[in-house]
Amino acid sequence: MVFWAKCKDGFRRTVEEHLKDSAHVAKELYGDFLSDGLRKQLPLAICVFAAAAHDIGKASPAFQNYIQKVNKDNQPRHWLISYRFLIRKEFDKSLALVLASHHGTPPDIETLKALDTGGKDRPCGFKDHVYIAEQERLLALALDEAGIGLDEAKAIKLDKPRQVLLSGFLVLCDWIASGRAEGGEDHGLTEPWKSAGFRADETYGRLLGGNAPRPVQAAVADIFARANKPGLIIIEAPMGEGKTEAALAAAEAMAERSNRGGLFFALPTQATSNAMFSRVRDWLEKLKLQEPHTIDLVHGRKLANSEFKKMYGRGFATDGEPEDMLSVNSWTQNRKKALFSNFVVGTVDHLLMAALKQKHFM
């Protein structure tokens, strides 16, 4: 029996093929896209296992009958079956819930209760030896891709922040693996920015064109001389005192100390975002980037911005000049992917959406 994961417009992919595609993408993104700070929170084995195992639920009567148009009843949905399968195998619920969320929405409590009673076991395939054998085989493949044993995988426990991060990573892997298999545009995601950190004389000399720092900028230098890995710095000063340069200097320091690979500069309006886009580009040119990175402007009328429009679709320079190591990624040009670029300038609502209970907030 063939277990299909995708079957649309003549395109077909088995569950095993999608499992391997997703695991390959997870390994690629982990090495090339995630920052060192994120890798400390999400070990490679956990990322690869989640990516490989997320669609085990497609090896079920409910999904196979639906995708082969035997019937229109697609319940329980395959991501819920993946969740229930891991629970039956005694995996921790915190990991099982990540698999259940890979289409953008964590399951509600009532749905989980209905699954946990066992009343949905037949459409899940848990009472048919053919489906049970395939699910077990897929689990073994996922463990092999991740390079971990069953007991080690069962011991994985995730707190809420890591659940959200892993869910976001899993969704990204699924999108890319599915897009590649269907012949779509590849992701174009670039390596994380590696900040050289904050060296007061050198940093401000570059940012200010050799001018001495103003009082608020000197205060930021003093803070970072004394602080131990700050998570938040608030700068208040009148117009013209150099808050933007102080903030960018602080970002260089915080990126190095927290091993993070990018920047989001949030503004209240489209007009202020447009103005800041130019200033952030100027800052990046002064950094003389040595590796390709991506930049984006996120608001509803960004294509009316001539500077952004000129960069859109241009690609990277082939001569390797540092000032040309910046491009706009066409793959990230929608709301769900808007913040995947290395450097983003835009209206603050795009950041606030990540704190709302909405689909794909992760």
Low-confidence stretches: none
Q: Strands of the largest sheet, in order across it?
A: 3-6-4-5
Provide a count of the helices: 17
Proportion of strand residues? 5-15%
Could you tell me the radius of gyration in angstroms? Answer: 23 Å
What percent of the residues sit in helical stretches (DSSP H or I)? 40-55%
Distance N to C terminus? 36 Å
Give an overview in words.
This protein is of the alpha/beta class and 362 residues long. The protein has 17 helices and six strands. The strands form two sheets. Strands 3-6-4-5 form a four-stranded parallel sheet. Strand 4, helix 16 and strand 5 form a beta-alpha-beta unit. Helix 1 packs parallel to helix 9 and helix 3 runs antiparallel to helix 9. The longest helix is centred in the middle third of the chain and has 22 residues. It is elongated and about 75 Å long.
Keywords for this entry:
alpha/beta; 362 residues; two-stranded antiparallel sheet; elongated
